[in-house]
Amino acid sequence: MSKYGQYCPIAQALEIVGDRWTLLIIRDMLTGTTQFNDLERGLPGLSRGLLAARLRQLQAAGVVEKQFNNSGRKTTEYHLTEAGQELQTVITA
Question: Which domains does the chain have, with CATH numbers?
Fold first, then answer.
């Protein structure tokens, strides 16, 4: 994740979503994709390791939250937080 060391809102936003693949991950989550394997399938060329790293970064930034779903089979889902949902305006502009 790039660090610009500036306090303007644009630089701070770029520190969170400016890395390659990050906005595409958020885009897919906005369309309802929540499981890791589904995110991976929807983004050909993105490695599992890099997807996991980007999801961790988004969690640390408060954009994504990880939820464990134990209904029937154990699955992990990723959901956008309120802050993550607010990025829809930027992505669909």
Answer: 20-91 (1.10.10.10)
